[in-house]
Protein: Drug/metabolite transporter (DMT)-like permease
Amino acid sequence: MTRIQANLVLLLAGAIWGGGFVAQSTAMDTIGPLWFVGLRFAIATVAVLPFALLEARKSEVKTTRRHGMLYLLIGLTLFGVMITQQIGLQTTTVTNSSFLTGLYVVIVPIIAVVFLRRAPHWIVWPGALMALTGIYLLSGGDMSALSRGDILTIFCAVFSAGQITLAGIIVSETGRALTLSMAQFAVTAVLALAAAVIVEPISWAAIRDAAPEILYVGIFSSGIAFSLQIIGQRYTTSSQAAIFLSSEALFGAALGAVVLGEKISTLGYVGCALMFAAMLLVEIVPEIARRRRQNGLLISQNPG
Structure:
């Protein structure tokens, strides 16, 4: 898979996640956040399990104790992402949630520099700021005073940045994208369901009423989209991945307009344009630089 194809895969994951915001919000009318997260990732685990087993048979890389610890770590991180986001949606809007979650666009390259000592391509920094500005304008450019849900969603962005960074590291080391996906789903499902049994009431009627949302986010937003994220990150950097994944806010707003009748303001359309420009920049500029280096190398090898 080429880097361009990988980034398109990440864009598709962002589109699926965008639809998940609507489902996550409406599900809160009938079911608690812990049960919702636990059930969605239990479904995702079951959905990905056969493919992970097939991948394991074909893989030449055996799972080591280190890999197991890394799988557990990314599972804990994903649990942090989903719980803070889902509980946050109880006291914040879908618009605020999508904007604040998108803060990982800036946090991921900071992690790369501070903790991994990896400087991303220079275009990532203006691209990240453009994407973040685009998300802000898409939210209407008018953020109210931070609520408890907003603060939780900021923590969600930090966990998201950690999950994206870890995913890139682990999949590069193991080459087993589907095994990684299944492992983080299973850890998240177990932790959420264990907590739900203790602190949240549940009934079959609540599960039945929330079943469409649970199935959508379980199969598509979780099973498919997170797996696409891991697959795409095998062939691109975490910083570039964060920018393409941030398109979830763009698609979330579009689906909100179609499904829920929400309207996108003029500022929102400007934000959409900025996000698309950011994605094009981080795709085109490194490609131009790479081709120039190749041409320069060919010229130096064949001076006559």
